[in-house]
Amino acid sequence: MYSLQAIPPQTETIMRLFIAIPLASQVVEALERLSRSLQSANDNLRWSSPETWHITLQFLGETSIEKFSCIVQSLHQITSPPVPIWLNETGFFDRAGVFFAGVSVSPELRYLERHVVAATARCGFVAEDRPYHPHVTLARAKGNDRVRTLRRLKTRVDENFQYPAFTAREFLLYESHLGSDGARHEVRKRFPLV
């Protein structure tokens, strides 16, 4: 478990945080099958690794150690039942060059997302002004020709791919570490849904 006392004084005091629902193993396996079936040499895509797959509730960004304590306290106050999760069809954010698996917004997921946003607002975070669009990012187009790259990928995607449903029984506070090979996510705190 993460401990504030474990951080030496010379360590960086800024953390890159987000709050998300982890995926069930059967969903990860299904997404791995889908990703493997679409990957090809020189496809000009950076495929995300299964270890980074999640359903974001709120991205917080660069956060101080002081705000970390507030976030944890506020998130612990959320009471929410377990959340049924259904992934639906794949999709594309063309301008961002992103290929994703969409997530249906159930009333339970909407409830949890709104309560997470309200909890972090008490710590000074502001909600995004765009609608909540939960998804699992599977790949990002590289280079300047994102439109053509995604167009080629679209022709290979099986629109009838079936995803298993699952029930989320927790949500997590993650720290994201950026590197040349992409992001690595580390769980900082777990919050049960009961």
Characterize the structure shown:
With 194 residues, the chain is α+β, with helices and mostly antiparallel strands. It has a single domain (18-192), classed as Cyclic phosphodiesterase (Cyclic Phosphodiesterase, Chain: A), CATH 3.90.1140. Helices cover 26% and strands 36% of the residues. The strands form three sheets. A four-stranded antiparallel sheet has the order 3-1-9-10, with helices on one face. It has a four-stranded antiparallel sheet with strand order 2-7-6-5. It is globular, with a radius of gyration of 18 Å.
Structural class from helices and strands? alpha+beta
Specify the overall morphology.
globular
Q: Order of strands across the biggest sheet?
A: 3-1-9-10
CATH architecture title: Alpha-Beta Complex
Largest sheet: 4 strands, antiparallel
Which topology does CATH recognise? Cyclic Phosphodiesterase, Chain: A
The residue ranges in which pLDDT falls below 50 over 5 or more consecutive positions are 1-10
Distance between the termini: 21 Å
| Average predicted local confidence, pLDDT | 90
As for the number of domains, it is 1
Number of strands: 10
- Would you state the CATH class? Alpha Beta
What is the count of DSSP helices, taking H or I runs of 4+ residues?
A: 4
